[in-house]
Here is the input.
Amino acid sequence: MTTQVVVCFFVLIMSNIAQIVARLFYYYYFCLRLGEHIPAMKKKRIKT
Here is the structure.
């Protein structure tokens, strides 16, 4: 394995982890907001 391949895999893994963490934070925040504004759920669902 060349250094380029290792770096490529590392970047891919790191970006995937960053995406997962960002989604977790988004869903956590979204659930908190949902507790306050339940009617907004239908509007948000369409966007997803």
Remarks:
- The two ends are 39 Å apart (CA to CA).
- The mean pLDDT is 82.
